[in-house]
Specification:
The structure is a single chain. Strands 11, 12, 13, 14, 15, 16, 17 and 18 form an eight-stranded antiparallel beta sheet that branches. A five-stranded antiparallel beta sheet has the order 4-5-9-7-8. The protein contains eleven helices and 18 strands. By secondary structure, the chain is α+β, with helices and mostly antiparallel strands. The radius of gyration is 21 Å and the shape is globular.
Length: 401
């Protein structure tokens, strides 16, 4: 999708410094790539330098008692899950094994365990960062705490994070269920889903994809219950079967966590079809919100509409504790178009929802810019992000927005 002049693949923090120095000496545009896929395309460029961190992919349990794990930024989450499973540990880490650690762990981390574990950034305790001037620093609660604040949600503009120290959770098996139901177009079923998630056990996290098939609207629901046994799994997911007309028998099972972010997901991220994506968050789903969602999903050329449940442990964290301030919402709404449709079609679909959502998540925004920045980092959060980006990268060589 792009033609950089050079792709550099460092194998250590020292080589990241050398790669950064080379890019600066050449005066070329710079992109940093953590090894997975990225919606915005910022991980490559035309005519510039790409620092590809995929060789920085080591994973090590530092302290099993404290559940502290060191993960390098170029690893992908399938490999992380596989490495931690023998220790009975897991990190909530997005919904696909091919996602790169660095991009997700500097942006947020809304994954299959979010309502139980929180965001990935909520468990980052320290990071090793190469700053724009070539300095390598460790940031934690006592050393460069402002940098740690920025790394957790706005790290892409503060420096090149080469490794994270993350507090994992005790987890071996999860309950997994796939549900398909036909739902009404007035939004009543989506309200039922939102109401169930608001009161459900925190171990339950769900994702919903809305698909229009002729006159029918289908909700495909993936439900994950952390540390579940079979009775708890069924108790958590059976209310979801009642929100519409069941199309398939309930497919529910227990599985090791790595099965959700499988190493089978690992493939080269080359030549793939781009999407144009935007998103926003809902604090509570009203009748009008739900009707707007179903109307968007049933447009003549419908976009892809996805809903992710947040809340729970995500909302335990104070809004000013990290650079992700959206701690009162309960639903993430994601809308995407695919070629031949692009931004014009996405904007036409999104206008039904634009005034209803509150805030946004950087991981599902493919068009970075001032408007996106103001939604992702609103108010005082945005002011602090800009201040720290200017402090750590005054020449704006890493600036994403």
């Amino acid at each position: 999708m792009a033609e950089p002049a050079a792709v550099l693949i460092p194998e250590s923090a020292r080589e990241v410094v050398a790669a950064l120095r080379f890019a600066r000496e050449q005066g070329l545009p710079l992109s940093v790539r953590s090894g997975g896929h990225g919606l915005s395309g910022r991980s490559s460029n035309n005519g510039g330098v790409v620092i590809d961190l995929s060789a920085l992919n080591r994973i090590r349990v530092l302290d099993r008692t404290a559940r502290l794990v060191r993960v390098e930024a170029g690893a992908r989450w399938a490999t992380v899950a596989q490495a931690l499973a023998p220790h009975g540990l897991a990190i909530s880490s997005g919904d696909h094994g091919n996602v790169g650690v660095g991009g997700l762990a500097t942006g947020g981390g809304i994954g299959w365990l979010a309502r139980h574990y929180g965001l990935t950034i909520d468990r980052i305790r320290a990071a090793e960062v190469v700053l724009a001037d070539g300095t390598t620093v460790r940031t934690d609660a006592e050393h460069e705490p402002d940098l740690l604040w920025a790394v957790r949600g706005a790290g892409s503009g503060a420096g090149i994070v080469v490794a994270f120290e993350i507090e994992a959770m005790e987890l071996r098996n999860v309950g997994y269920a796939q549900i398909a139901v036909r739902i009404d177009r007035d939004g009543h079923a989506l309200r039922q889903w939102a109401e169930h998630m608001a009161s459900a056990t925190r171990e339950l996290t769900t994702a919903v994809t809305l698909q229009s098939h002729g006159s029918a609207l289908i909700a495909s629901i993936t439900a994950v219950v952390a540390d579940a046994d079979e009775p708890r799994l069924r108790a958590a997911v059976e209310p979801l079967l009642k929100i519409g007309t069941r199309l398939l028998d309930l497919h529910a099972q227990l599985a090791p966590y790595p099965a959700l972010v499988s190493t089978a997901h690992l493939h080269p991220n080359t030549g793939q079809q781009p999407s144009t994506t935007t998103n926003g968050l809902l604090a509570a789903m009203t009748d009008d919100d739900a009707a707007a969602l179903t109307a968007t999903a049933t447009l003549p050329s419908p976009p892809l509409v996805q809903l992710r449940s947040v809340g729970g442990a995500v909302n335990d964290v104070p809004a000013d504790a990290t650079a992700y301030p959206h701690r009162h919402q309960h639903t993430l709404v994601i809308v995407s178009t695919f070629p031949p449709h692009h931004g014009v079609e996405l904007d036409a679909a999104w206008h039904l929802l634009a005034e209803r959502v509150d805030g946004a998540y950087t991981g599902f925004e493919s068009r970075p810019g001032p408007e996106a920045f103001s939604r992702i980092y609103p108010g005082a959060t945005g002011e602090r992000v800009i201040g720290l980006w200017n402090r750590y990268d005054p020449d704006r060589i890493l600036r994403a927005f």
